[in-house]
């Protein structure tokens, strides 16, 4: 059209001046004919696309920017000079031609130029206005990490990782900026390659055969950690609010590896290792026990270390094979892995086989259409031990081993396991022998993503994802001589889940001189379906006789009543975001997400979650141009709101049941008619828990990366928490689910400091440290207090250790204050009421369930072909209730059980009753050498087919300095009481392991 217009002008001019017309026609038509779209792609030195790079013509001053794949299109004449620039990279000048331009920019500042993943897109670090941290595979692939959440430990300020158990594949608690809910957990939203995962269980839980019920395993353990390319943690509301109702606990974005720039590659990773218990608890040995006894009948003549009986040296192996290739139009990566880990407790194990395929291809002219596919499938087989989460001395394998009298023998004179002949206390080796617990979980996660360029800078994206899992758990306790299912029992628990995701969104990038805009708008729909069944048998055949019930449940026994359930919920969302950048100095980001959930009341289906953030790159101001020592100095500020929808399905609706207890007699006293019981009161006004967060941060880089880092202050407040509280008068039920006006406030500082201490040809050394403070308080709770943290142990039924109360931090402890012992070894407690009687009224509140300072230190060194790295983690200001110590109290000497040495050496009286007090409250402070790795890379110049061979040794949990007397101070057992979560209680869980590895990475 432009050509036609100019020709018309030339014709008009010919009527006025033939010579003038000829000159104008020739000149303008010639220029137009030469001005054609010039295509190109901009990448970094590692082949990673650089989004947001500026492409400017030195002739016409036309400017455009690259999209998230690093691609650009600009209408210029052939031969024009173009300047390609991006913050953190050295600018490069190229000449426009007819061929596609492939531009590789070299880093000038690796921190600023780093491309980071954000929700529904990516940015350079220099353009980021929110609080987020991105970790790359090379910095997190250390030690044995079954699940991705373990890989974050000690790497990110404000992120605390605590294992609920050391059992292979067990759950992990991730705390990002504190505890924001009384009722639900702290788990953030995990998004894998653009697919948000549900935090619901994907493996079946175990039954309670009187030995405790077992929790399902970690839902993230299906991912092969070798497949992970980057992990990005979105911490503040500005970064996380694009995920709206699920972003209150933070968001973790996981991207997996793809084919990289260069020829085809084949990589084989493998390691072998051995593990042992991180430490043994200090209980009395046989000789010490004999000296301590007051009743000689408890000397059984043996000499057994029961911890040695159940613990073993576990073996772990991992093999991963991957191959990848790129082409002019796409790339692919395929991997296959197998991991097998024997737990440090006999009969426990974890085996996983995974396969992954990532593919990307472009179609049509100028790569107008790009299609990506991500697919992973995992098959997991686990064996568990009788160590259920109901905890305490009455059912836990590990506590039975710790309590076992060391003068007892493992086996009797017949060669069989010694029968302790005691209720609620059994030979731990015998328990293991009669118990089988096997779980198989198969999971498939995949999505297909298509991006269509509609116009220059305008792209439409479609994303469809599926997350499907099935799990079968077979649990058996064979006929035995204990009082726990003496006739034997079998149960099969099945779980099936399906999540489907459908998303459409548009992105538009545009530049006008120094102004850069990016606009995002879209729609998302996700559906979740869960179903489960349970059936079982009692009175099964003896172990070793007939067919095991897991293979033929009907072989023998009496069937129990089967049960099942099915649930479904949906989430429909609209979201938008605007990014504005002026001259790479002033940055503005605003986002809004509207989420509608079937989990909430008819009157409150939708929640709206806005955010806004500002950034100022001070170092790019004119008055800073002479300050060569400063490469980055950026000030950031943000505000936003996110939500929490982690509530049970259907709680907004009334629930009824028929029962004889609520029935009545019709006509006479013989015909009882079932009556209707109201189980749950409807609340159509139930709405989201709302989290409002302020964040102020500064990013800096000095002396060419000799020192770089960030400092953050955050204030994060949970409003309208959802609680199941006592209902008002005339209510049909005693409790009701409702929002209350309480607040949970988390605030603190985060700091990250890093330095490239040395960077020469032969030697480089990078060191970074991170730390975070946390202050947590509860405000405006409409009830006087809420209790949680159910304590387990003899005589402690119904005792709670946690209290939620205004003015105190979440999960504070509520107990008697222990002052010591009198001359006869009797406990002395503080008499707060002054009435001379110690009872529940003398309890007081102790804070410290949540550590108030966490830190990590990470170092990486390279000398020629050697590489060496190590990391430390630690925490201070926290406390743990040592429930293990409660079970191993001094009273155990009077009941044929073992005791912790410290109570015996304190000369405590064996007649002291067991009471929850500060005697069992211990500091959880620690410093741990979390990982050490030493490697050497062999290069074989004569073998052209072998690129590199790296051999390494590694140690994990090598050294822990702590005053805590339990197995591990870094523990948080997931358990609720009255619907409220427990915090800071060590329930004698499966302990952590110390691991040594020998590994190799071979690249062909």
Automatic annotation (TrEMBL):
Transmembrane segments: none annotated. Residues 1-21 form the signal peptide. GO terms for cellular component: cell outer membrane. Residues 125-251 form the TonB-dependent receptor plug domain. Keywords: Cell outer membrane, Membrane, Signal, TonB box, Transmembrane, Transmembrane beta strand, Transport. It comes from the Bacteria. This is SusC/RagA family TonB-linked outer membrane protein. It comes from Chitinophaga oryziterrae.
């Amino acid at each position: 059209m432009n050509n036609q217009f100019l020709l018309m002008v030339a014709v008009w001019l010919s009527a006025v001046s033939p010579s003038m017309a000829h000159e104008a026609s020739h000149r303008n038509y010639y220029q137009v004919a030469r001005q054609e779209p010039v295509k190109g792609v901009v990448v970094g030195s590692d082949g990673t696309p650089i989004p947001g790079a500026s492409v400017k013509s030195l002739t016409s001053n036309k400017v455009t920017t690259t999209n998230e794949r690093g691609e650009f299109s600009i209408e210029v004449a052939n031969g024009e000079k173009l300047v390609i620039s991006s913050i953190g990279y050295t600018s490069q000048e190229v000449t426009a031609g007819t061929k596609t331009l492939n531009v590789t920019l070299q880093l000038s500042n690796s921190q600023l130029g780093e491309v980071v993943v954000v929700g529904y897109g990516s940015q350079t670090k220099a353009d980021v206005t929110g609080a987020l941290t991105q970790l790359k595979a090379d910095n997190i692939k250390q030690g044995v990490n079954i699940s991705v959440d373990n890989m974050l430990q000690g790497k990110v300020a404000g992120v605390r990782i605590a294992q609920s158990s050391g059992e292979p594949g067990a759950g992990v608690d991730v705390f990002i900026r504190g505890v924001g809910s009384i009722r639900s957990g702290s788990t953030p939203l995990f998004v894998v390659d653009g697919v948000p995962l549900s935090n619901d269980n994907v493996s079946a839980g175990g039954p309670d055969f009187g030995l405790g019920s077992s929790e399902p395993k970690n839902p993230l353990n299906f991912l092969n950690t070798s497949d992970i390319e980057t992990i990005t943690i979105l911490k503040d509301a500005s970064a996380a609010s694009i995920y709206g109702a699920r972003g209150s606990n933070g968001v973790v974005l996981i991207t997996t590896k793809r084919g990289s720039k260069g020829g085809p590659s084949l990589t084989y990773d493998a390691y072998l290792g051995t593990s042992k218990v991180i430490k043994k608890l200090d209980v009395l040995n046989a000789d010490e026990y004999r000296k301590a006894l007051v009743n000689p009948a408890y000397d059984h003549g043996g000499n057994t270390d029961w911890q040695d009986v159940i613990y073993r040296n576990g073996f772990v192996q991992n093999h991963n094979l991957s191959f990848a290739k790129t082409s002019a139009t796409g790339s692919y990566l395929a991997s296959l892995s197998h991991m097998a880990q024997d737990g440090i407790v006999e009969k426990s194990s974890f085996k996983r086989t995974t396969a992954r395929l990532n593919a990307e291809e472009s179609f049509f002219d100028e790569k107008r259409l790009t299609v990506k596919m991500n697919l992973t499938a995992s098959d997991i087989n686990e064996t568990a031990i009788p160590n259920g989460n109901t905890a305490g001395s009455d059912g836990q394998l590990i506590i039975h081993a710790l309590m076992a009298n060391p003068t007892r023998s493992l086996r009797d004179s017949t060669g069989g396991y010694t029968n302790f002949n005691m209720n609620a206390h059994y030979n731990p080796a015998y328990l293991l022998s009669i118990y089988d617990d096997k779980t198989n979980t198969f999971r498939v996660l995949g999505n297909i993503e298509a991006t269509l360029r509609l116009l220059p800078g305008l792209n439409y994206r479609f994303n469809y994802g599926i997350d499907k899992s099935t799990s079968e758990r077979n649990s058996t306790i064979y006929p035995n001589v204990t009082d726990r299912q003496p006739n034997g029992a079998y149960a099969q628990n099945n779980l099936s889940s399906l999540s489907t995701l459908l998303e459409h969104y548009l992105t538009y990038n545009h530049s006008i001189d120094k102004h850069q805009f990016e606009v995002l708008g879209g729609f998302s729909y996700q559906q979740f379906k869960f179903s489960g069944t349970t059936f079982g048998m009692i009175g099964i055949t003896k172990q070793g006789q007939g067919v095991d019930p897991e293979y033929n449940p009907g072989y023998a026994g009496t069937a129990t009543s089967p049960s099942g359930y099915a649930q479904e919920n949906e989430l429909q969302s609209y979201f938008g975001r605007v990014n504005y950048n002026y001259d790479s100095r002033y940055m503005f980001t605003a986002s809004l997400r509207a989420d509608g959930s079937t989990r909430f009341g008819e009157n409150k289906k939708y929640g709206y979650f806005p955010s806004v953030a500002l950034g100022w790159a001070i170092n790019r101001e004119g008055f800073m141009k002479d300050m060569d020592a400063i490469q980055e100095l950026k000030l950031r500020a943000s505000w936003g709101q996110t939500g929490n929808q982690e509530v049970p399905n259907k709680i907004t609706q009334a629930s009824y049941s028929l029962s004889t207890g609520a029935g009545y007699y019709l006509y006479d006293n013989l015909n009882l008619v079932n009556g209707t019981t109201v189980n749950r009161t409807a609340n159509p006004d139930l709405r989201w828990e709302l989290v409002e967060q302020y964040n102020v941060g500064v990013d800096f880089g000095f002396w060419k990366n000799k020192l770089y880092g960030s400092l953050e202050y955050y204030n994060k407040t949970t409003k309208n928490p959802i609680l199941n509280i006592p209902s008002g008068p005339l209510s049909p039920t005693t409790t009701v689910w409702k929002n209350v006006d309480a607040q949970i406030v988390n605030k603190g500082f985060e700091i990250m400091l890093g330095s490239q201490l040395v960077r020469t040809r032969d030697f480089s050394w990078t060191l970074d440290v991170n730390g975070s403070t946390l202050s947590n308080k509860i405000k405006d709770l409409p009830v006087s207090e809420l209790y949680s943290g159910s304590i387990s142990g003899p005589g402690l039924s119904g005792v709670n250790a946690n209290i939620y109360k205004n003015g105190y931090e979440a999960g504070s402890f509520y107990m008697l204050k222990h002052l010591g012992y009198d001359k006869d070894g009797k406990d002395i407690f503080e008499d707060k009421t002054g009435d001379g009687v110690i009872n529940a009224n003398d309890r007081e509140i102790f804070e410290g369930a949540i550590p108030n300072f966490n830190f990590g230190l990470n170092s990486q060194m390279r000398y020629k072909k050697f590489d060496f790295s190590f990391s430390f983690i630690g925490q201070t200001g926290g406390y743990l209730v040592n429930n293990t110590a409660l079970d191993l109290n001094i009273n155990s000497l009077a009941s044929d059980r073992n005791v912790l040495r410290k109570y015996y050496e304190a000369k405590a009286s064996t007649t002291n009753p067991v009471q929850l007090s500060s005697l069992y409250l211990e500091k959880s402070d620690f410093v741990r050498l979390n990982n050490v790795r030493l490697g050497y890379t062999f290069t074989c110049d004569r073998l052209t087919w072998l690129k590199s061979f790296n051999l390494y040794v590694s140690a994990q949990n090598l050294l822990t300095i702590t005053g805590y007397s339990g197995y591990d101070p870094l523990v948080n057992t997931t358990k609720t009481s009255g619907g409220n979560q427990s915090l800071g209680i060590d329930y004698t869980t499966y302990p952590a392991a110390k691991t040594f590895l020998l590994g190799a990475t071979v690249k062909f």
